Amino acid sequence: MRIALHTRVHADRIADYEQAHREVPAELADAIRAAGATEWTIWRSGTELFHLVECADYSLLLAGLEGLPVNIAWQARMAELLDVVHDYSADGATAGLPVVWEL
After folding, report:
1. CA 101/CA 44 separation, integer angstroms
2. How far is it, in rounded angstroms, from Cα 25 to Cα 52?
3. Which residues sit opposite 53 in a β-bridge?
4. pLDDT in tens for each of the 103 residues of the chain?
5. Using N-to-C axis directions, what is the helix angle for 69-81 and 26-35, rounded to 10°?
6. CATH assignment of 2-102, given 3.40.50.10190, 3.40.50.11750, 3.40.50.720, 3.30.70.100?
């Protein structure tokens, strides 16, 4: 299953966002893999972020991450930096955009 997400970084927080992704805790990446993600890649164009998540079941992935202290801390950090979050249909919109983070 491929899930595509679209988020937006607060315009004045782009540098903070990119710094945060240079410091993604290894424990978080391990937890994402253990919860069932086989791929999680984020591309950025200006303030727009495009996420591609590959997993067997997205709801199980989210359930596997729920309640984990490392994920709760990460989500709190991202809430400071991101605006809108919604699903969208992945149709190659990320081609050619710079990769911010890859699992």
Report:
1. 9
2. 19
3. 3, 40
4. 888 888 899 999 999 999 998 888 999 999 999 999 999 999 898 998 888 899 998 889 989 999 999 999 999 999 899 876 555 544 445 555 667 767 6
5. 110
6. 3.30.70.100
